[in-house]
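name: query_chain
kind: protein
chains: 1
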Amino acid sequence: MIGIPVTISFQTFMNLLLEEVPELSIAYSEHIDDYDELIEHVFMGDVTRFSEELYFENPDSEVLKRLLHFIDRAFAVEDEKLKELISVSFLENLSRDEKSFEGIRGLLSAKLVEELSKYN
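structure:
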C-alpha cells in the first residue's frame, strides 16, 4: 500500500526531519531523555550544533546536504510558526565566529541566506 504524502508543517516537521535525517535520532533521544518531552526550539539548537559538527567533520557531508535541503523545503512552506522555528532556533544559533558559519551559509538557499542576514 502506498502511503499518503505528508505535508510539511509545524506539527509534522520533527517527524519528517527524523525520517529525512535519521542520523539525528540519537540527539533526539537524548533531548527526550533530558526534557521528558520535545521542546522544538531547544531541539533545533541541537540540530544547529549537529550541522556544525557535520561541517567540521566533512564539509561535503551528504547528511549535512540532506539536512539543509530539508530545512530549506520546510522554510518554503507557508507556515509562520515553522518559519519562526527555523529562523530563530536554527539560523540564529549558527556560530558566527566558527569556520563552519561561512561554509554552512554557502550551502543554504537564497531564501535562508536572506533570513540569516537578519541576524548579522
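note: The chain has a mean pLDDT of 94.
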